[in-house]
Design a protein that fits this description.
Helix content: under 10%
Number of domains: 1
Distance between the termini: 62 Å
Number of strands: 46
Strand content: over 45%
CATH class: Mainly Beta
CATH topology: Pectate Lyase C-like
Radius of gyration: 23 Å
CATH architecture: 3 Solenoid
C-alpha cells in the first residue's frame, strides 16, 4: 500500500506501508460485528500489541465507544492503523490521581501510526507531545481525526514532531495547550503537512506559536484554518508570546488558508510579535487571509525578520500595540497582488498598514488602504527601504506615508 501526501504543491511524500490485516481482540463484540474489538482498554492494548508484534496491522475500533486510559498505550514501532467511526474516542482518564502521560509515541525502526475517524482527548505529557510524540524518521497520519484538550508541560500540546513526518487530512487540532512552544503542533525538523484541516483554539502558555511552532524543517498548510490561537509570554521571560497563530523558524508554505483571530501576548523586549504569524525563517503565503489578529508588540498580522513572500492575499483588520498593524518587517518581504486594509496600531505607534524597521519591503500591484496609526497610517519607513510598484496607498489616517529617513518614493501624503 502507498500513501502520497500533497504539501501545498511544493513537496510530495511517498510513504511505503507494509500490507496490513485486521486485528481482533480475543473476545467477540456482538454489538459492532466480528471485525471490531471490544469497547474496553484491555482489548485496545492487546490489539495494538498483537499488531506491532505481527509487523504491522489494522485495528478496527468499536463505534460509540470511549477507550479510557490510565497509562500510555504501547509504543508504535511498526505500521499500525487504528480505525474508528461514529463516537469513537481514545482518552486519558480525568479521575483525580491519574498520572501524567501522553497517549501515543511513534518510534522504533519502522514506526508509522495512522489514526482514522476518531478523537484523541486529555493526553497530559510531563514532557513534549500531549497526545502524540513522533520520533525522527517516523510518521503520523491523521485522517478525519480530532485531537482536543491535550496538554504538554513542554512543547506540542497535541503533537510534538522530532524530525519525523506529520500529515493531517480533514482533521482538527482543537483546544490543546503547551507549557512551552506549539500549543497545537510543535516541530523540530522533519515535515508537517496540514491539508483541509483546522488548528483552532490552542494555547502556548509559556512560549511561541499558539497554533503551530516550527523550529526548523518544512511546514505546509493548505485549504485550512489557523484561528483563535494564543501565544503567551510566561514566567517573566522576554522571548516568548510570539506568533499567536504560527511561529515559523524553518520553511513554511501557507496556501488558501485563514489565519484569523489569533493573539501574541508577550510582554518582554523580544516578545508579543506576530499576532497571526511570526517568521524568522522562510515564509510563503498565497491566496490566504490574515485577518483580525492582535499583537502586544509589532506585526498584528505578520512580523517578519527572515524572508517572506505574500501573494494574492488579504491582510485586514489586524492590530499591533507598538507598530505595524498589518505587517512589520525587519528582514526581506515581498508583497504582490495583495490588499493591506483596515489595520491599526495602539497609541503613539507607527505604521498602521506597514512598518519597515529594517531591511526591505517591496509592494507590487497591491493596495494599502484605510489603515490607522499615530504616524504613517499607511506605511512607516523607520530604516531600510520600502519600494512601491504600481501600488495604491490611500485613505489612511492621519497620512499615507511617513519616514525617519528618505521619503517613500511614489507615496503621496
Amino acid at each position: 500500500m502507498r500513501f502520497v501526501a500533497s504539501a501545498g504543491g511544493a513537496v510530495a511524500l511517498a510513504l511505503a506501508v507494509v500490507p496490513m490485516t485486521p486485528v481482533q481482540a480475543a473476545s467477540h463484540n456482538p454489538d459492532h460485528g466480528n471485525d471490531r474489538i471490544a469497547c474496553n482498554t484491555a482489548a485496545l492494548t492487546s490489539a495494538i500489541t498483537i499488531a506491532v508484534g505481527a509487523g504491522g496491522g489494522t485495528v478496527e475500533l468499536a463505534h460509540d465507544c470511549r477507550y479510557v486510559l490510565t497509562a500510555s498505550l504501547p509504543s508504535i514501532d511498526k505500521p499500525v492503523t487504528l480505525r474508528g467511526g461514529k463516537g469513537t474516542s481514545i482518552e486519558r482518564s480525568v479521575v483525580v490521581g491519574t498520572s501524567q502521560f501522553r497517549i501515543f509515541e511513534v518510534a522504533g525502526d519502522a514506526g508509522f501510526l495512522t489514526l482514522d475517524d476518531l478523537t484523541v482527548r486529555n493526553g497530559d505529557s510531563p514532557e513534549n507531545g500531549g497526545a502524540v510524540l513522533v520520533r525522527s524518521g517516523r510518521t503520523l497520519l491523521l485522517k478525519s481525526v480530532t485531537l482536543t484538550r491535550n496538554r504538554a508541560t513542554g512543547n506540542g500540546g497535541a503533537v510534538a514532531n522530532e524530525g519525523g513526518r506529520v500529515i493531517l487530512r480533514d482533521s482538527k487540532v482543537d483546544k490543546n495547550s503547551a507549557g512551552a512552544d506549539g500549543g497545537g503542533i510543535h516541530t523540530s525538523g522533519g515535515v508537517v503537512s496540514v491539508n483541509s484541516s483546522a488548528v483552532n483554539g490552542n494555547r502556548a502558555t509559556g512560549g511561541n506559536g499558539g497554533g503551530v511552532a516550527s523550529v526548523d524543517g518544512y511546514v505546509t498548510i493548505i485549504h485550512s484554518n489557523v484561528d483563535k490561537n494564543e501565544a503567551v509570554d510566561g514566567n517573566g521571560a522576554d522571548d516568548g508570546g510570539n506568533g499567536g497563530g504560527i511561529d515559523n523558524g524553518g520553511t513554511a508554505d501557507i496556501q488558501s488558508t485563514s489565519v484569523t483571530g489569533n493573539r501574541a501576548n508577550g510582554d518582554g523586549d523580544n516578545s508579543g510579535n506576530g499576532g497571526g504569524i511570526r517568521n524568522t525563517g522562510t515564509l510563503v503565503v498565497g491566496r490566504s487571509s490574515i485577518n483580525k489578529n492582535t499583537a502586544a508588540a509589532d506585526g498584528g498580522g505578520i512580523h517578519n525578520t527572515g524572508s517572506a513572500w505574500i501573494g494574492r492575499s488579504v491582510i485586514k483588520d489586524n492590530t499591533a500595540s507598538t507598530g505595524g498593524g498589518g505587517l512589520s518587517n525587519e528582514g526581506e518581504t515581498t508583497v504582490e497582488s495583495s490588499d493591506i486594509d483596515g489595520n491599526e496600531t495602539g497609541a503613539d505607534a507607527y505604521g498602521g498598514g506597514v512598518l519597515n524597521s529594517d531591511g526591505n519591503t517591496v509592494l507590487t500591484d497591491s493596495t494599502v488602504t484605510k489603515n490607522q496609526a499615530t504616524d504613517g497610517g499607511g506605511i512607516r519607513q523607520e530604516a531600510g527601504t520600502v519600494t512601491l510598484n504600481r501600488t495604491r496607498v490611500k485613505d489612511n489616517v492621519p497620512n499615507n506615508c511617513s519616514s525617519a529617513n528618505t521619503p517613500v518614493t511614489g507615496c503621496v501624503g
